[in-house]
Structures are given as structure tokens and as C-alpha cells.
């Protein structure tokens, strides 16, 4: 088809009608957004001559995406999560805001309600047969660089199969395995024992991977550990660290790797270190400080409200 009708008054009036812009009821914001997005799609259909078959394949795809619960997975895969971070970074820069530890995306696998521990937590339940012990620790610092006793460090990561508790298709993990909230101690320090995670891969038979295949892309992430960090007078930090040396460090399907978020990992094999940590064998150690940024005009401009799985 080569006929062009998008710019006609018939189509433009129709877009306004279908978006509810002719009436008073409903939400002005929803109308504005839907009108823009539907208009852009109509235009794409015309410009790219998207066929009926292609369109209906897309509709069926959306049904599958929802049925499989993967909308929040396709989102980072198409870079939307990273794009929102780019926008926040640019906004901070334009305001001359002093930032701390770089932010990076939350991802779709946080669960609220994890056990709360003071200063130190053991994250894993000890059941992963391939688990290599990890000790990770650091200081939570405020915008002025001073340690922040009482800061809340929420941490979550996956096991050596790349599966997260509460989202594990094998059903093998106990609730909140590798998920904890750690309250920084009197020196502002947090510390945990866990196992070194493996990278994550999208479900190979799922709709996200199906679309990535069409783009000639893989659906894997390098090994990483997620954090939310909150403290009085500061903006909530959402970030991750990567496990150094992972082959996908700079080839993350979710685009979350950032400079400053790949701390060195040290293999400790000496008896003194093993003993000092109450362990029985070699382990990996990561030290990483988490530095928060101040509220902007009293506001947390980087807090994100999104539906999250909450488990009591
Ligand atoms: C993850 O573990 C993750 O962190 C992201 C961003 C997407 C999919 C799985
Ligand atoms: Fe993750």
C-alpha cells in the first residue's frame, strides 16, 4: 500500500475521538498519553506499511507477554529502564546535583518483605551445591561523605543457576533466599555472607527471548547484585554491582552495567581471612561503599513507585 491518510482530518479527528479528547470524563493525563502513543503507532503503520498480519501478530504477542508475566522483562531488554536512568542522570546534571554511587536499573525481580538484620546478614540458605561463598561489605555514606548508621540496605541476587527466590521455575528455593534488609551498624557499615551469583538468562521459551531472537540479540545478564539504599535526608539509591570478570560485563541485555559499579573481587584463601570471617574454606570478598545523594529541595527525585511483589 502506498496511500497516505494519516495526516487527513478524518484520521486526526478519529484519533482525538478514540483517545477521549472530545469528552470531559476520564483522566486528562491518560488521554494525552494515549493520544500521543496511538498516533505514533498509526503513523508507524502507515510509514512502515505494517501489514494486518504483522499487527495481529503483535496483538497476540502482547497477550502472551502478559500471560507469561514478562512485560517487566521486555522493558529492560528494549532499554526503557536504562532510558529512565539516562533521563534522571541528565536531570541531575542539568541541576548540578551532586550524585554519589551511580544509579542503575531495578529490574523486575525485587520482592518486599525480606527479613531485616542489624549490621550483618547471611543471605543464602546454604542449599546451593555450587555456591562459592561471598563476603561483601562496605560503608553507607551520606552526601557529605560521612557514614550513615541506621541506613537501610536492601540486597537481592540470584543463585548459581541464575534463578531468584519467588521467581524460581524449579521451585527449589526457600522464601527470601538471597534477599535481606540490612541496617547499617554504628559505623555505617553493612556486611553480608552469601554465594557468588551467576548471570541471569531470560526464559528461553518465553516471549521476551522470542523477540530478542528476532533482533539477533541474546537475553543474558552478567552476574550482579541489586541494592536499594535508603537513609534520612537522602534520595533512595537503586543500583547494582557486577561480578568482575563476568564475560558479559559489557554485553548486558538489560544495559545495567556502569562505570563505578564493578568493584574488584578478591579470592581469599589464607587461614587468617577464613577464620576472621568464621568460614571453613576459601571465599570471595568484595568491598563496596554505597554513597547516597541529598534530597533536592527537600524532595526525593529518584524514588520510583512501581508495582512490586510483596510477600508477608
Ligand atoms: C534480572 O535479574 C535483572 O536484574 C533484570 C534487570 C532483568 C532481568 C533479570
Ligand atoms: Fe537481577
From TrEMBL:
Keywords attached to this entry = Aromatic hydrocarbons catabolism, Dioxygenase, Iron, Metal-binding, Oxidoreductase
Q: Does the keyword Oxidoreductase apply?
A: yes
Q: Which GO molecular function entries does the Swiss-Prot or TrEMBL record give?
A: catechol 1,2-dioxygenase activity; ferric iron binding
Q: Part of which pathway? A: Aromatic compound metabolism; beta-ketoadipate pathway; 5-oxo-4,5-dihydro-2-furylacetate from catechol: step 1/3
Sorted alphabetically, which PROSITE patterns does this protein's record hold? Answer: INTRADIOL_DIOXYGENAS
Q: Which GO terms describe its biological process?
A: beta-ketoadipate pathway; catechol-containing compound catabolic process
Task: Tell whether Protein biosynthesis is among the UniProt keywords.
Answer: no
User: What reactions does this protein catalyze?
Assistant: catechol + O2 = cis,cis-muconate + 2 H(+)
Listed cofactors: Fe(3+)
**InterPro entries (alphabetical):** Catechol_dOase_N (IPR007535), Cchol_dOase_prob (IPR012801), Intradiol_dOase_C (IPR000627), Intradiol_dOase_core (IPR015889), Intradiol_RC_Dioxygenase (IPR050770)
Q: Where does the Intradiol ring-cleavage dioxygenases domain lie?
A: 136-164
What EC numbers are recorded for this enzyme?
Answer: 1.13.11.1
Catalytic EC class: oxidoreductase
- Any one Pfam family here would be Dioxygenase_C
Family listed: Belongs to the intradiol ring-cleavage dioxygenase family.
Read off the PANTHER family from this record. Answer: DIOXYGENASE, PUTATIVE (AFU_ORTHOLOGUE AFUA_2G02910)-RELATED, INTRADIOL RING-CLEAVAGE DIOXYGENASES DOMAIN-CONTAINING PROTEIN-RELATED
Q: Can you say what this protein is called?
A: Catechol 1,2-dioxygenase
Q: Which organism is it from?
A: Eoetvoesiella caeni
Amino acid at each position: 500500500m502506498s496511500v497516505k491518510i494519516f495526516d487527513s482530518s478524518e484520521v486526526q479527528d478519529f484519533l482525538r475521538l478514540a483517545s477521549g479528547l472530545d469528552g470531559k470524563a476520564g483522566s486528562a493525563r491518560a488521554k494525552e498519553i494515549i493520544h500521543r502513543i496511538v498516533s505514533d503507532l498509526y503513523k508507524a503503520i502507515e510509514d512502515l506499511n505494517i501489514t494486518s498480519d504483522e499487527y495481529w501478530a503483535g496483538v497476540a504477542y502482547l497477550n502472551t507477554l502478559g500471560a507469561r508475566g514478562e512485560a517487566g522483562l521486555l522493558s529492560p531488554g528494549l532499554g526503557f529502564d536504562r532510558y529512565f536512568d539516562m533521563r534522571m542522570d541528565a536531570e541531575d546534571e542539568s541541576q548540578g546535583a551532586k550524585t554519589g554511587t551511580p544509579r542503575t536499573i531495578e529490574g523486575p525481580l525485587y520482592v518486599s518483605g525480606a527479613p531485616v538484620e542489624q549490621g550483618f546478614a547471611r543471605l543464602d540458605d546454604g542449599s546451593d551445591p555450587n555456591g562459592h561463598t561471598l563476603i561483601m561489605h562496605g560503608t553507607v555514606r551520606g552526601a557529605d561523605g560521612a557514614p550513615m548508621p541506621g541506613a537501610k540496605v536492601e540486597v537481592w541476587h540470584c543463585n548459581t543457576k541464575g534463578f531468584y527466590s519467588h521467581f524460581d521455575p524449579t521451585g527449589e528455593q526457600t522464601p527470601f533466599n538471597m534477599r535481606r534488609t540490612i541496617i547499617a551498624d554504628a559505623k555505617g557499615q553493612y556486611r553480608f555472607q552469601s554465594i557468588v551469583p551467576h548471570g541471569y538468562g531470560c526464559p528461553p521459551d518465553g516471549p521476551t527471548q522470542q523477540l530478542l531472537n528476532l533482533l539477533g540479540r541474546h537475553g543474558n545478564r552478567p552476574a550482579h547484585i541489586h541494592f536499594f539504599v535508603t537513609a534520612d535526608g537522602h534520595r533512595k539509591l537503586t543500583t547494582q554491582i557486577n561480578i568482575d570478570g563476568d564475560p558479559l560485563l559489557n554485553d548486558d541485555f538489560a544495559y545495567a552495567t556502569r562505570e563505578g559499579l564493578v568493584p574488584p573481587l578478591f579470592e581469599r584463601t589464607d587461614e587468617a581471612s577464613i577464620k576472621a570471617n568464621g568460614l571453613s574454606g576459601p571465599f570471595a570478598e568484595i568491598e563496596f561503599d554505597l554513597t547516597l545523594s541529598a534530597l533536592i529541595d527537600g524532595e526525593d527525585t529518584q524514588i520510583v513507585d512501581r508495582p512490586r511483589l510483596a510477600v508477608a
